[in-house]
Predict the structure.
Amino acid sequence: MAPCSEELLDELGLNKGGMTLVDAARAEELYSAMGPAREISGGSAANTLAGLSALGAQCAFIGQVADDQLGAVFAHDIRAVGIDFDTPARQEEPSTARCLIFVTPDAQRTMNTFLGASQFLPPSTLDAEAVAAAKILYLEGYLWDPEEPRAAMRRAIEAARAAGRKVAFTLSEVFVIERHGDDFRALIDDGLIDILFANHLELAALTGEDTLEAGIAALRDKVPTLVVTRSSDGAVAVHDGARAEVPAEPIDKVVDTTGAGDLFAAGFLYGYVRDEPLETCLRRGAIAACEIISHYGARTEADLTRLMDEKLG
């Protein structure tokens, strides 16, 4: 990831604020056009687990890297924060996934993702025992696009359901909903999603409703726990008929919005598994998101536990 000007975004034809899938050649082109950059482990669900682990939760990650340098760095980083990661590295091409993130002066992140090896996560690598042992199975919408991870996630949902566990799902991005909205709506209609994370744009894309309240109304009776983030306008959650709202946490300067939704989910889920009140879960999400947007990258730099203790009292 690297800071960039608005002019460079225009010159490269990038979709500001969004996430665009790119091939290996385009990834190399964009990397060449970047200014001085920093490499930081990422991945939407991996970022969420890293946040949860930082708060003291026990987590395991299932995902695919290649047997290359970036894959080794990712594996090291996720294990170093205490997360179990046992998926064997893939020996064949393509290389490990990477996301090239351009950050404009307004702190907006523009992501360009080469899925690489991650799109070849086979269902056979699924650790059904780990899924069955977890209180919550957390899935990211980004990986619903490739066939093999989609099949793996469907199998994971079956394993979680068979064990009586909760299934949490993040919609990830509007373009994912545009491609796979029918699948997501079917999962929801079939009662397979217990906790759904969406921002206000994703909620509108999923439900076809123009307003926040109409979007919430369309889903509140289908999803036991619905969490909707609204950037600087805070967040709202509905759980079994109860509703809570919180404002965004105050911050002196927003540096980089990469990972804000990932860390919001981490904070919320940490409170959820501890059976905390809905508003407290939202506050934890807001505090975690505020920490992540105060610096570059989607992995925490401050002590999240201390931050939450200070802010929650």
The CA atoms of residues 171 and 251 lie 26 Å apart.
